Amino acid sequence: MKRPDSPSTTEMPPVISVIVPALNEESVIGRCLASLKQQKPPSAHFEVIVVDNGSTDRTREIARSFGGSLSVTVLDRSGVRISALRNLGAAMAKGEFLAFLDADCVAPQHWLRQTVDLLRADDFRIIGAQYRIPANSSWVAKAWYGDLWRMKDGPVSYVPGGDLAISRELFMNLGGFDETIVTSEDTEFCERAAASSVPILAVPSLSVVHLGTPQTLEGFYRKQSWHGINVHRVFLRDIRHSKSRKAMLFAVYMLIGIVVAIAGVCAGAISGRAAEGLAGAAVLLMCPLVLALLASMERKKWNYLLSLTFWRICSAKRLCPSAPPLPPRNPSHPPHRPWWWPPGPRNPARLRAPGGASCSEPPLSR
């Protein structure tokens, strides 16, 4: 794949590149690109790169239809994971900064302006926000996601890949997203960045509306299961630096609780006493109930207590192992460089700190 032609000497390069990975998104990508069309900076100040993963619907056609009002480039890269789509978009980007936006997300009008302002003030950091839920969402979406976007404010362990911004130089130095994992690529990327002393900042005003928010119990469970495909793999690959220790401990507790609950039911059936079964159920439910209670206290919404308890139980499913762990990072092996990655040395071991200084960290690897 050829890199798009470079701008002429009289043409100003874009300040920021918006990278939108897509796969069969015809129902939402129009709203996503329309929100970029409404951004306060003139469209000449930014470019949009849609990286399509072999869509069989009208996704590419709809994206190209915005060419008259936006600087849109549509790239084709079939049969790869979302990390590879984002990495390809970053490799082809011309902007000083990168903003990753999922095709089912709608950005507020100030999104790019504020992103550029924040990164110009300090480009040695990752910024973003948790997603907002669409208007008129169901009680399912409100109970679990609700106002999390407002609660996550300041330093955090990660920001979602569908609303993440970073300088292009820093992204390249960190090695991009890990293309060997199916999900949790944003968590892994942020953990790798944090290990190199890169701050990660959640800014609620940068929150985008996630049109793909699950609105049903089945949708919620399916999404949790899908997101959990690689959670434990990322955790086991670098336990010392992982920010998922509490979540993994919760999963272990739930597995033990299930065993205790089953044992209690069996013991109660044999002895004819219900106390054993109730005790096992109490052990299983105690931790999810306590976590739901704390979340309800923080959000000051007690009507969601039972719902949050159920969601906590479901969320344990995403943390249960479903594939063998990734091999541990080997400092002697640099990250794999995709064939479309820009040429030149890439040394994540020496990252530029604020003020132009360098910070030495162990080499990063995928």
What does this entry look like structurally?
The strands form three sheets. An eight-stranded mixed sheet has the order 3-2-1-4-8-6-9-7, with helices on both faces. The model is unreliable at 1-10, 319-336, 345-350 and 353-366 (pLDDT under 50). The chain is elongated. It folds into two domains: 17-214 and 333-360, Spore Coat Polysaccharide Biosynthesis Protein SpsA, Chain A (Alpha-Beta Complex), CATH 3.90.550.10; 245-319, no CATH class. The chain contains 13 helices and twelve strands. With 366 residues, it is of the alpha/beta class. It has helices at 29-37, 59-64, 82-92, 111-121, 139-144, 148-151, 168-174, 185-195, 217-227, 231-237, 245-271, 275-299, 305-315; strands at residues 16-22, 46-52, 72-76, 97-101, 105-106, 126-128, 154-155, 163-167, 200-202, 209-210, 350-352, 358-360.
CATH architecture heading of the largest domain: Alpha-Beta Complex
Structural class: alpha/beta
Annotated CATH homologous superfamily of the largest domain? Spore Coat Polysaccharide Biosynthesis Protein SpsA, Chain A
> What share of the residues lie within helices?
25-40%
Tell me the radius of gyration.
22 Å
H/E topology pattern? EHEHEHEEHEHHEEHHEEHHHHHEE
Structure annotation, total helices = 13
Strand count, sense and barrel status of the largest sheet are: 8 strands, mixed
Across the major sheet, the strand order is 3-2-1-4-8-6-9-7
Strand content: 5-15%
Our count of domains comes out at 2
Low-confidence stretches: 1-10, 319-336, 345-350, 353-366
Average the pLDDT over all residues and give the rounded result: 78
